[in-house]
Hints:
The chain is an alpha/beta fold. The protein is built from 11 helices and 10 strands. Helices cover 39% and strands 25% of the residues. The mean pLDDT is 93. The strands form 2 sheets. It has a 6-stranded mixed β-sheet with strand order 6-7-8-3-9-10, sandwiched between helices. Adenosine-5'-triphosphate binds next to helix 1.
Amino acid sequence: MRTVVRVENLWKEIDGRWILKGVSFEVMEEEIFSIIGASGSGKTSITKHIVGLWKPTKGKVYVFGREVSGLPPLELDDLRRNIGYVFQEGALFDSLKVWENVGFYFLEHTNAKSDEVREIAREKLRLVNLNEDVLDLMPSELSGGMKKRVSIARAIATDPKLIIYDEPTSGLDPITSRVIDRLILELREKTKTTAIVVTHDMMSAFSISDRIMVLREGEVVDVGTPEEILRSKDPFVNEFVSEIREILVGQDKAP
Ligand SMILES: Nc1ncnc2c1ncn2[C@@H]1O[C@H](COP(=O)(O)OP(=O)(O)OP(=O)(O)O)[C@@H](O)[C@H]1O
Ligand SMILES: [Mg+2]
């Protein structure tokens, strides 16, 4: 199996503070790889290096075999076209209709006609289980769960090979969160993409991930399958997952 992302000894300093301290991990093709850890532990910061928004203070980040910080602008654009990023805040453009949000890349970077872009938007919305009734709605007319789905549709608009979801279930009720979980799994099946999921939602992490990485104050404390993480000998990880372990055991779903 091929490596899609390789992070090698990544250190990041901002304003004299070390945000990331020697983070290393690999994400394999078609894997769903979750990053969990307390607020401020550096989860989003890692993803910013993967898409080349931030440069490492030390260390290297390779995506599809290319070292991100060394890429000239055109190659960085090309890389970004192959990465879908679902932002933590959703970040839909409030003044644009749903189809314009989903097709934003094509409206902005290509000469594609409106009809063609609407068609792309329709197809991607179908992949996230929304029908064409939403094409002409404004983001303010959508529920939280629908907004997330539209954000995901926008992230997959350019048929990326890697999707990064930053807190895809935050702000959603438990039922809608499980719908988004299923969608992430479904999209992997349908589009054969690799996914990195940053999440606070332990139920989500433990039910959809092939592997989970636990982060603490900018350092990796453990990486493993959900089963391995639930049985981790590390005292911090053990404590961190104690609640979800009890829930999963109570439901007889412990892996
Ligand atoms: N642009 C920035 N400038 C300065 N410090 C930053 C910046 N972005 C993040 N940080 C700091 O880096 C640390 C890690 O932030 P990051 O956003 O990666 O955390 P996180 O794990 O994603 O947290 P959350 O779960 O709350 O989203 C935090 O201490 C944060 O204050
Ligand atoms: Mg974050």
